[in-house]
């Protein structure tokens, strides 16, 4: 009996493994094709400044709708793009697309908008990364301050000297930097004082229960005061309710992003959204 169960178990696991490997292969082939056939899309989610009472920026978020696989989440396909190296051409395309798009909105009159683009570690670690960014900015005649690069703690700490050098170079050029998903990676706060960044984005897992959970609220309060003393702005991710917005506003959080303001949208929808929602007054004082 034992032997029998063992064999069944083995077959069960190997079937799972084959299934996962198949899915992985489908994703890789599909992604390659989507890139070639220009079927990837960039959606945009606004970032709202609680002191200026208006939308100051937007985050570019990749979307992939595959004819066979349907909608695939970036959380699933970005790792595949990274493992296969496809993230290099895909990431460059997102940067170009986002630059072109923000320029279009600026020309429509939203002249102060900036766009935030997520940068993968594979991209950031390329030797010519900063050159590539400068080139995209020059070729699109974009003001450097219209582009914000979102990097995670993991990337930043991989080789901290190299990171600092690259970030300083980019900031001197005029590009701004956000530290994304803050709080989920490394717990040590001491290193961030040495990082040249402009925005700190608190991960949405801390925001979720902020209204009920005193510990999460205390963590956020201390992140905000740390950011104030280091002179960078705090962005809260994943704000879904007015209670969360109010608590964050009272704490002095600078910007919020989340479904409460708007979900990520296609560029056409974002243009319409801007017409009616650029300025808004939320009461939290
Ligand atoms: P991220 O950079 O932390 O992006 C925020 C994610 O939270 C997005 O998920 C967004 O749709 C979602 N979100 C925003 N507001 C809310 C909210 O109120 N509630 C909830 N539940 N979720 C909210 P998305 O678009 O699925 O992207 C997931 C991750 O994939 C991103 O996390 C980012 O790490 C990565 N990603 C997306 N686009 C790109 C890209 O162009 N390049 C790279 N390298 N990574 C990307
Ligand atoms: Mg991000
Ligand atoms: Mg994030
Ligand atoms: Mg994330």
TrEMBL record:
Residues 24-278 form the EAL domain. It comes from the Bacteria. This is EAL domain-containing protein. It comes from Neobacillus paridis. The lineage of its organism: Bacteria, Bacillati, Bacillota, Bacilli, Bacillales. The chain holds residues 287 to 571 of 571 of the full protein.
């Amino acid at each position: 009996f034992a032997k029998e169960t063992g064999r069944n178990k083995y077959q069960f696991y190997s079937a799972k493994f084959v299934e996962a490997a198949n899915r992985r292969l489908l994703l890789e082939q599909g992604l390659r094709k989507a890139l070639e056939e220009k079927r990837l899309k960039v959606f945009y989610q606004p970032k709202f400044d609680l002191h200026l009472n208006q939308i100051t920026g937007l985050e570019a978020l990749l979307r992939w709708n595959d004819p066979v696989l349907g909608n695939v989440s970036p959380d699933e396909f970005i790792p595949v793009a990274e493992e296969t190296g496809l993230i290099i051409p895909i990431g460059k395309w997102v940067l170009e697309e986002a630059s072109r798009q923000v320029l279009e909105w600026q020309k429509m009159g939203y002249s102060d908008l900036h766009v935030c683009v997520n940068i993968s570690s594979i991209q950031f670690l390329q030797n010519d990364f900063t050159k590539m960014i400068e080139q995209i900015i020059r070729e699109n005649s974009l003001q450097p301050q219209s582009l914000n690069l979102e990097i995670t703690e993991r990337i930043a700490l991989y080789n901290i000297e190299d990171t600092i050098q690259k970030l300083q170079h980019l900031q001197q050029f005029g590009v701004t930097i956000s530290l994304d998903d803050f709080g989920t990676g490394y717990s040590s706060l001491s290193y961030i004082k040495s990082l040249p960044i402009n925005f700190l984005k608190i991960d949405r897992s801390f925001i979720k229960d902020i209204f009920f959970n005193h510990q999460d609220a205390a963590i956020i309060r201390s992140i905000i005061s740390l950011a104030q003393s280091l002179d960078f702005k705090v962005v809260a991710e994943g704000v879904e309710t007015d209670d969360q917005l109010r608590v964050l506003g009272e704490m002095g959080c600078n910007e919020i992003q989340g479904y409460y303001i708007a979900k990520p949208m296609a560029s056409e929808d974002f243009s319409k959204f801007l017409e009616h929602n650029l300025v808004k007054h939320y009461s939290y004082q």
